[in-house]
Automatic annotation (TrEMBL):
Pfam families recorded: ABC_tran
Example GO molecular function: ATP binding
Domain ABC transporter: 6-235
Domain of life: Bacteria
Phylogenetic lineage: Bacteria, Pseudomonadati, Pseudomonadota, Gammaproteobacteria, Steroidobacterales
Keyword Transport found: yes
Protein name: ABC transporter ATP-binding protein
């Protein structure tokens, strides 16, 4: 059986008195690209923050490679690659220093060769010794993705990670993720508004509305949309929005 890398179990979360997540459950096994869809403000980023351990849920549990992010945060985070938002990067560090700090936090003796190779392919290597506060949005986004890939994480979590990337760079990242997935090395959870990514790359997708998963699409359903044409997934999503 394929190992379940991400297991979200009936998660509730609040900001103050306002409940943002209301019993969210989902699973992602190794080798699966899972896309989380939904309009702004419905709880996608909140769910990702709970998975990353930045926000404690009010109830429920979240397991990464079998380890609870609540009860075993250090063990869970050893298997997690989380791409922070570009604006959260430390502006007074260089890109290389960011990579080195992340690597040390994960107990790595050196930066991953695969990550450094991807940096070259993304033409980021020439920026690594510059300070992050001089980076464009796209350059910051590339660095966030590289940080999430360090240490061969079993779960890679990305929040609108392709925003700001030029088409060539976005394609390189997608192909890199596909290579990791095809080897069963990880699962990918991507929060996105891009139906193109869902139609062409996702193995599973779920629609989050007002803190609840209201619709899921499995691999065979997404494959059928690919055959039907570009508007098929958009039509299905519009129907799910109700």
């Amino acid at each position: 059986m394929t190992a379940i890398v991400l297991d979200v179990r009936q998660v509730h979360a609040k900001y103050g008195k306002r409940e943002v997540l209301s019993g969210v459950s989902l699973q992602a096994p190794a080798g699966e690209w899972f896309c989380l869809l939904g309009p702004n403000g419905v709880g996608k980023s909140t769910l990702l923050r709970c998975i990353g351990g930045a926000l404690a849920p009010t109830s429920g549990d979240l397991l990464i490679a079998g380890h609870s992010i609540i009860a075993e945060p250090l063990a869970a985070k050893r298997h997690l690659g989380y791409a922070c938002a570009p604006e959260q990067l430390p502006g007074l560090l260089t890109g290389r220093q960011c990579l080195e700090v992340y690597a040390q936090a994960k107990g790595l003796q050196a930066l991953d060769d695969a990550v450094l190779t991807l940096a070259v392919e993304l033409r980021l290597d020439g920026h690594l010794d510059g300070f992050v506060d001089t980076y464009s949005l796209g350059t910051r986004q590339k660095l966030c993705i590289l940080l999430a890939l360090l240490g061969e994480p079993a779960l890679i979590v990305l929040d609108e990670a392709f925003n700001g990337l030029d088409p060539a760079s976005a394609l390189l990242v997608k192909h890199h993720l596909q290579q990791r997935l095809s080897g069963g090395r990880c699962a990918v959870l991507l929060a996105t508004h891009s139906l193109d990514i869902v139609e062409h790359y996702a193995d599973k997708a779920a629609l989050l509305i007002e803190g609840r998963i209201v619709r899921e699409w499995n691999e065979s359903e997404i494959a059928a949309y690919r055959v039907q044409g570009d508007s098929a997934m958009e039509t299905a999503l519009a129907a799910a929005y109700g």
